Amino acid sequence: MTRIHERRVRLAVLRSRLTKVLALVVFLVTAGTVAPSAAFAASSVVQFQRVGTPVCIQQTGGNETPLVESLCSSSAPGQRWTWLTGSPGGSKFIPSSAPLSCLNVQGSSRSAGAKIVVSDCASDLSQAWLIFSTLPSGFILKNANSGLCVTRTVAGIVQQPCVSGTVGQAFLINTV
What we know:
The protein is α+β, with helices and mostly antiparallel strands. The chain has one domain (2-175): Trefoil (Acidic Fibroblast Growth Factor, subunit A), CATH 2.80.10.50. It has one helix and twelve strands; from the N terminus they run H-E-E-E-E-E-E-E-E-E-E-E-E. The chain has one helix at 2-29; strands at residues 45-50, 55-58, 68-71, 81-87, 90-95, 101-105, 116-120, 129-133, 139-143, 149-153, 156-160, 171-175. A four-stranded antiparallel β-sheet has the order 5-4-1-12, with no helix packed on it. Strands 2-3 form a two-stranded antiparallel sheet. It has a two-stranded antiparallel ribbon with strand order 6-7. Strand 10 (149-153) and strand 11 (156-160) form a beta hairpin. The longest helix is centred in the N-terminal third of the chain and has 28 residues, at 2-29.
């Protein structure tokens, strides 16, 4: 009886994993941009972890303070972002540590090298983000205003031209 129970538990775990994988496939295949599906609800709380590293994007100060990277922790409020869809131009991301602020490009700049910050939420396209898959793993966050991507560089977290395969532009989107 114990073996039967163990097999049933393993089967349940496999079904759960398969459901998540299928949801992620639906998530990746939607019209070139990524839209929430069963994997990510319209108001999921997520973290942005740089692919191949244990670090996540984090808000550490008030409005207009450039974002930083630090070791991922699901309990760090500055690493928890509420993903809102349905905004004109794309998705919005609101940090748990500043619920009236949104992920933004400093000064609504359209220039490469502009810092990624949070600022008061508005209807500005510089706060709208498009998400694209970077198969085999990860996603890029492309700003709807500038057409540039969130990138980790030696200068910090900035926007740069989107270049396929750029390590500093690929992020895992983890639900927390």
